Amino acid sequence: xxxxxxxxVVLLVLGVALLANPLYLYPDGVSSEKTYTYEASAVDYLPHxxxxxxxxxSCGWNPLQSAECASIIDMARGDxxxxxxxxxxxxxxxxxxxxxxxxxxxxxxxxxxxxxxxLTLSLHPVSTETVRRNLSEDLDESPRYVRDAVRNxxxxxxxxxxxxxxxHYVESEGRYYVVEPVExxxxxxxxxxxxxxxxxxxxxxxxxxxxxxxCVWRAGEWTERGREQ
Length: 229
Prior knowledge:
Layout: H1 3-19, E1 32-42, H2 50-55, E2 56-59, H3 67-76, E3 81-84, E4 100-103, E5 106-115, E6 118-126, H4 128-135, E7 137-138, H5 144-152, E8 154-158, E9 168-172, E10 175-188, H6 198-228
Parallel strand pairs: 2-4, 7-9
Antiparallel strand pairs: 1-8, 1-10, 3-6, 4-5, 5-6, 9-10
């Protein structure tokens, strides 16, 4: 390959790179990062966190939510349910799909016992403190931003450090806290202290496009010169 063709190849590669610049020159979202502010609040009730939603079955009076709740309310009044099982039927170890039941303003722990082929379903009363203690996270085992929020009132965490935004229910020294995201914002990361304006980005892209066309054009000229050698 002669000198003219080598120059043509270099100019062609450079031109293609410049023409493709929107793919790498500040594509959408690359120049900023989302941050979340979490606040901690001391609470004396059991909050409706995702963990509590899946682990506690709440059955109110009005309206009656389901046939399951009808049986639960009956058991909460001290009436266990007994079922005679077929000889070839067994009971799955995780028979209940939740850890606790709330009915008639009280908390219960569901139980299932198998005596011979008789399955007995019942509810045993438990204290609210027991439920709170078992559903809450230990502060020392919580993420750093949760610990900082409890100690300082609030904390900030970047989106890259979060798997998902969620509300935390934690216990610290006998007190319970709800730590939840209260606001979010995008902060610039691309150029350190500020993000270039849309006009600046478009200007850079336009200049690169013009430069790319010029390089491709010159590559064609050098290719023609190489053929004449």
